Amino acid sequence: MTAHDPSAGPPPDEPRAQPRKAALAAWIGSALEYYDFFIYGSAAALIFPKVFFDESDPANATLLSLATFGVAYAARPVGALFLGHVGDRLGRKKIMVFTLMLMGISTFLIGCLPTRDQIGGAAPVLLVLLRILQGVSAAGEQASANSMSLEHAPRNRRGYFTSFTINGTQAGQLIATLAFIPVAALPEEQLLSWGWRIPFWLSVAVAVTGYVIRRTLEETPVFTRQAATEGVAKMPLAVLLRDHWADVLRVVAAAVIATVSTIFTVWALSYATSDAVGMSRTGMLWVGALANVVALFTIPLWARLSDRVGRRPVFLVGAVGSAVAMPLYLWAISTGSYPLTLILGVLVFGVVYSAANGIWPAFYAEMFPTRVRLSGMAIGTQTGFAIAGFAVAFASQIAGPDGDDWAGVALFAALLCVPPVVAALSARETAQVPTEQLGERHAEVPAKAGASVKA
């Protein structure tokens, strides 16, 4: 009997991988979960300064509201420690179901909160507590969905299948934006009294839909074999920090690229609709919506390209390109020209940023072996994302008391693209490494001629 080639997938007598089902579950779950997560961003920019904070000082109210957006990102590393440990001990599926339920419930409750006028200072406190629960949920969502998709995918298509997770995230952001467009068009009194609550209440469907979709998923063959042969790590975090600390730091630095998303989605929206520029809420929401529509198509294309040419070059295109393109987008907003803002918004977020955004699920996950993959991804990404989340509040400070120093914010956004570039340049190329050998320092990459070379 000939030995089974691990790069070819599971042996015939083992359960076959379900790459399409896993990718679909990741896409739908991420779309539903990040719909919840991103409606908060729109509300933080447009609604919450007037509903939960002191309107007598609009600039400070906006700063505090945007800071609550970042609170969830601060909670994410803490959630990653716990959920990463559980996911590497008990499996990816359990985390995927839990995170979706937690996000749906906490978001629904935000829509039920009394305002500052009704209960005073307790209102923003309750808002922050529920935002923290959103952050804990998000901490485990992408890492578990990415691990599930990658470990089910064929070796030569891991980039493509894992991109469905981030594609679902973009879809969720798109749905959140579309949900806010009719709400933002309401008269001011109706908008601030009950209109803003509707998108949050709709999230009750998240818990039900997420449970139905994800409970039928099978655990990944790679994790199942790991548990049955070598066993799972009793303390995944200890193994991770002992043997893979450099890759954790690399993912932290690379994940700072998410700053492009948070500044685009939240700060730029707040700036464009401020008195300094005066663009309409609805018009700017359409910029984000159309940019996300384009991203839905470009993300899988960039991911497929990374399966052919490697993760590093595609990621670098996105990181370097974003450093150049993001300042151009903020400049376009400063001119007050809606057509120019729309064109550059779609180019920056829909095309350029998608190069890095579409392939990071595979790029980061491939740095770690199966037994610590979820922990490594969760802790690394969520720490980097925490920086990106609070970048919105820093951008608001940089913009000054009048909120109109777009050039300072543009420089800030460009500088935060440097750590991802350095991380990508220092990373190993893993696109062709067999799934079972990912995370090993001397993994063998099958050559085109059939021989093996050391990675």
TrEMBL record:
Residues 435-455 are annotated as: Disordered. InterPro entries: MFS_dom, MFS_sugar_transport-like, MFS_trans_sf. Keywords: Cell membrane, Membrane, Transmembrane, Transmembrane helix, Transport. It is found in: Cell membrane. The keyword Cell inner membrane does not apply. SUPFAM superfamilies: MFS general substrate transporter. It comes from the Bacteria. Residues 22-431 form the Major facilitator superfamily (MFS) profile domain. The chain crosses the membrane at residues 24-49, 61-83, 95-113, 160-182, 194-213, 251-272, 284-302, 314-334, 340-365, 377-400, 406-427. It is a multi-pass membrane protein. This is MFS transporter. It comes from Streptomyces mutomycini.
